[in-house]
Amino acid sequence: MDTPDRIDWSQARWLNPPLRSHVDGGDLLITTDDRTDFWRVTGYGFTHHNGHALLTPLPEGTAVEVDFDADFSELYDQAGAMVYTDEFTWLKAGIEYTDDAPHLGAVVTRGMSDWSMAPVPEWRGHRITVRVSRRSDAVTVRARRAGESWRMVRLAPLDPTAPAAAGPFCCSPLRAGLQVRFTGFRLTSADTGIHDDPAG
User: Fold this and answer.
1) CATH: 3.40.50.10300, 3.90.190.20, 3.40.50.1820, 2.60.120.200. Which one for 5-189?
2) pLDDT, tens digit, for every residue of 71-106?
């Protein structure tokens, strides 16, 4: 699968449908419900599993790319790509708004969640692509601003025999009404190596 296959929005399944969603000229526009998130226990003592994700199967040896833009303005507003096995095992990666700036980061959950991030204020107002690539026992996460090179975000474990799905996600933990425009959703071949940039 050297050439990415565009995934039609209608071919994927919702994990927690959003308040509103519709297709606009090929893009998918999503408006989040009130106080939505994916998180398990760590640091906060609560579990939230009501964020919005639109998922398609992610077999070993494949990758999903998600393009999006949004006006992140409230604490913890977030969007990007998710890899989902079950409510105890998942990964989300992309942009999260905190400390008055967009941050590039990831949450990996295996029973309990962790969180890593770095500020990317120069990405504000730009289209972002997140790529999640599954090969062997790992998921490699990369991201980039439109027109720039990929940045490595995370390498995380994933049971090679586990059924998993991936696709765009978004959440707004402290409010309703975050609007996200997803402009692309593609399935392609997994990265050939951890240090090899994907084509394109």
Assistant:
1) 2.60.120.200
2) 999 999 999 999 999 999 999 999 999 999 999 999
